[in-house]
Structures are given as C-alpha cells and as structure tokens.
C-alpha cells in the first residue's frame, strides 16, 4: 500500500531533550516536506527536500533540523525542544515539485514539550 | 508571497442541504489549487485540485470546486451534505514559481442530522 508513515504518533518530552520524528514514504517520491499544524494557523511548512541531499527552509524552520540521506526517509530533528514546539506535525511527499503534484500526508505526530 | 484565506472558521449545515466552504488566494502567476480534508485524529486526505482547464473540478466523495480567476477564489461545494462530511477542510495554493504548498487556516464543517 502506498503510504507515508511517521513515528512516533504521540510523544511527550521535556524541554531540551533531543528528539527525532521519523518519516518514510514508499512511493519513490522526490519531494518531501514537514509541516506543523496549530489551531487557526493551518499548516505551516518547516522544511522541504526536493531530492536526496537537497533540503531547504520553509516558513518556520527555527529550532528544527532535517536530513535526506535516502530518497524514502526524511527525519525531523529537534535538537533542544521548547514548549512552543508543542504541535501536531505532518510529513508529506509528492512525486515532484513545481508542477502541482498532489502531496500525500502521513498520519501525524502529536508532540508535547513540557 | 502567496497566501490563502478561509474566511469562515466553522460552517454549520443540515444534512441534505448544500455545503459551501469558501477560499480565496493570492499568488504570483498561475495557481495550482487544492482542497484537503482532515478527519479527527487522521492525516490530511486529498479531495481535489485545479491545475488548468475546466473551471469546475470534481473530486472525491461527491465534492467539487469552482475556480474563479477574476475573484481569485476556489470554493468547495457539495450539493447534499452528509453527517460523515463533518471534518476540518483546508484550501491550499501552490504558486507556479514557488516550491511549497501554502495552506489556509482551515474551516470546520459540522453537518447536523
């Protein structure tokens, strides 16, 4: 089944404790992206990747890191989480970018930083 | 910079009545427009998109949307709403010169029996 998977689905952590949220897609998509969803703000892009070893900042990149060593994986890293990073996070992928390709979303990771 | 506005935080409609969720956008160049739906505790599901061609786009679950270039709008519609359509709906735009999808703030739809 074609899908985007994220792990963990739920995470409660404390300020400053490094964490990684994994994202994997099995559709051989080139473009991958991370978003955070906050009430009333919709989804805001954190980082995106156009292909392996190619990443760039989105609208709200502060406090986050990403890497794209393999085409299928695009982990999101919070080196020193803070309470304002408490949010619902989504990973997404699409076949390509710039051509209106449909993005497919993972199930989401709900992160709480105490 | 591109942007999307969904002017209604919530839309209430009786089952069987028409449903409309409004969306306006701002983008340089030709837009690619999308509607996604989010059910409770789920990820976003693609409903439909406009790339080019016919201004009326038909999508999943009986939804359709009309692209209006002069009004820069892309309203989502369904002729007869179901209780199961209750969810959070997001409009999004991808600018032809850009490299990201910009979302509106979302509209919660509540369909009452």
What's this, in brief?
The complex is a heterodimer of chains A (114) and B (113). With 114 residues, chain A is mainly β.
How would you explain this protein's 3D organization?
The complex is a heterodimer of chains A (114) and B (113). By secondary structure, chain A is mainly beta. Chain A has strands spanning 4-7, 10-13, 19-25, 31-38, 42-51, 54-57, 65-66, 76-78, 87-94, 104-105, 109-113. Chain A is globular. The mean pLDDT of chain A is 93. With 113 residues, chain B is an all-beta fold. Chain B contains no helices and 12 strands. The radius of gyration of chain B is 13 Å and the shape is globular. Chain B starts with a strand and ends with a strand.
Descriptive key words:
heterodimer; A: 114 residues; mainly beta; seven-stranded mixed sheet; four-stranded antiparallel sheet; 11 strands; globular; B: 113 residues; six-stranded mixed sheet
Please give the structural blueprint.
The complex is a heterodimer of chains A (114) and B (113).
Chain A: E1 4-7, E2 10-13, E3 19-25, E4 31-38, E5 42-51, E6 54-57, E7 65-66, E8 76-78, E9 87-94, E10 104-105, E11 109-113
Parallel strand pairs in A: 2-11
Antiparallel strand pairs in A: 1-3, 3-8, 4-5, 4-9, 5-6, 7-8, 9-10, 9-11
Chain B: E1 3-5, E2 10-14, E3 19-21, E4 24-26, E5 31-38, E6 44-50, E7 56-58, E8 64-68, E9 73-78, E10 87-95, E11 101-103, E12 107-112
Parallel strand pairs in B: 2-12
Antiparallel strand pairs in B: 1-4, 3-9, 5-6, 5-10, 7-8, 8-9, 10-11, 10-12
Q: Specify the overall morphology of chain B.
A: globular
Query: What is the CA-atom radius of gyration of chain A, in angstroms?
Result: 13 Å
Q: Span from first to last CA of chain B?
A: 41 Å
H/E series of chain B, N to C?
A: EEEEEEEEEEEE
């Amino acid at each position: 089944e074609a899908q985007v998977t994220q792990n963990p689905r739920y995470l409660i952590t404390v300020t400053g404790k490094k964490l990684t949220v994994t994202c994997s897609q099995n559709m051989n998509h080139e473009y991958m992206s991370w978003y955070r969803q906050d009430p009333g703000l919709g989804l805001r892009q954190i980082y995106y990747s156009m292909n392996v070893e190619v990443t760039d900042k989105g609208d709200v990149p502060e406090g986050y890191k990403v890497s794209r060593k393999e085409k299928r994986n695009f982990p999101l890293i919070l080196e020193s989480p803070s309470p304002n990073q408490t949010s619902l996070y989504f990973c997404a992928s699409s076949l390509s970018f710039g051509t209106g390709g449909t993005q497919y979303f993972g199930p989401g990771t709900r992160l709480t930083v105490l | 910079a591109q942007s999307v506005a969904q002017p209604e935080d919530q839309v209430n409609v009786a089952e069987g009545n028409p449903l409309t969720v409004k969306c306006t956008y701002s983008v340089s160049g030709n837009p690619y427009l999308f509607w996604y739906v989010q059910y409770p505790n789920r990820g976003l599901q693609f409903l439909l998109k406009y790339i080019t061609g016919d201004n009326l786009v038909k999508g999943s679950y009986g939804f359709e949307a009309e692209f209006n270039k002069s009004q820069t709008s892309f309203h989502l519609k369904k002729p007869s709403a179901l209780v199961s359509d209750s969810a959070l709906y997001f409009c999004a735009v991808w600018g032809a010169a850009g490299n990201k999808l910009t979302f509106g703030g979302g509209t919660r739809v509540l369909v009452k029996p």
